[in-house]
Amino acid sequence: MVQGDALRFRVAGIYNGVFTMWDESTGTAWSHLDGRAIAGPLAGSQLTVRPLQTTTWSAWVEAHPATTVPSTETGASYVRNNTLGDEFLSEPFLASLVDIPDGRLSASALVIGVRAGDEARAFPLEARPDDAPMQDTVGGLPVVILEDGNGQPVLAYHRALTDGRVLTFARDAEGVITDEETGSRWSATGLAVAGELAGVQLTFVTSFLTEYYGWLAFNPETSIHESPDTPR
Amino acid sequence: MNARVLVMLLATVAVIACGDEAPSDASPTSTAAPTPRADGLTGAPLPATTVGSRAFDEEHFDRDLEPFPALNEVVPVAAADAAWMQPDDLVLGAVHNNEARAYPLFMMTLHHVANDTLGGEPYLVTF
């Protein structure tokens, strides 16, 4: 939705190795990586990025029993596909479309890309420590990458409270995420579900799962979170 | 650029929801709405985030191409009735205004764009 009007989008092409799309109302070209209008009447507009987890159906249903799923009776034929992050592209081909990555990570490495303030940082899924979710400070904001019921990093949340406390997170033997300050337990969507902080909802920080090359192309100044992490 | 090439380019996983131009004020919720605390304590708010821009290459942009058909008419089905879903199926899960929906990866790799309504608001999901 832009300026009160709901837009309808279609896939159109490729930019920086990432799909572009256009809206039927204005013809503006948009990046589907991060929702920014690249060219056309609405150039410079930015869709609000909302949290969208990549997780398993079983973990999602456990966390959200009332969830729905789109009917597959759409006229299309679907093929079951549960693979992410394959090395689909040869580097020479990728190089024809996008500035290929810089050696810090492989092109198809899966990262949680986080934007906060003026900073962009990639959190490689493989950088997750054994005993804690990934934590860092991005653009001056302390953030934590919360995890789903399978222990997979999903999205970034602001690990600070309105009373000024900054939280430090750990993961217990059962995989439950807790904060060291109060021992409260946290869900993958940033809600304290038990303990002293029960009912507190952390604020979502603009973030999504992506492959490194697309993240780097759209955020050439990105830094990379390093493990073992040292929460500050 | 043929469809096969485009299929190969789907490597980047992107997840975007459509709101308005205001700075991100997303308020993720669980399916069961959290009860506001009596003391008002909550997660601290964020400052506005700015996003830069890069030059756009028209070469690979063609509105007539439409390599993948957007999913436009979502018919929601309750989890208990979605017998085709398997526990290990990857999904893109969204919650907005206490309405939760999971978009299976096997659907999004075909459509790549879903124009949907979630929690009473227009919602765009991309992969």
Can you describe what's shown?
The complex is a heterodimer of chains A (232) and B (127). Chain A has three helices and 18 strands. Chain A is mainly beta. Chain A has helices at 57-63, 91-95, 212-218, and strands at 9-15, 18-23, 29-31, 37-39, 52-56, 68-70, 110-116, 119-124, 135-138, 141-147, 153-158, 169-171, 177-179, 185-186, 192-194, 203-205, 207-211, 223-224. Chain A is 8% helix and 34% strand. Chain B is α+β, with helices and mostly antiparallel strands. Chain B has a domain at 13-19 and 68-77 and 88-127. Chain B has helices spanning 3-8, 105-111; strands at 76-78, 90-96, 99-104, 113-118, 121-126. In chain B, strands 2-3 form a two-stranded antiparallel ribbon. In chain B, strands 4-5 form a two-stranded antiparallel sheet. Mean pLDDT of chain B is 72; it is low at 1-31 and 50-54. The interface between A and B is large, with 109 and 102 residues.
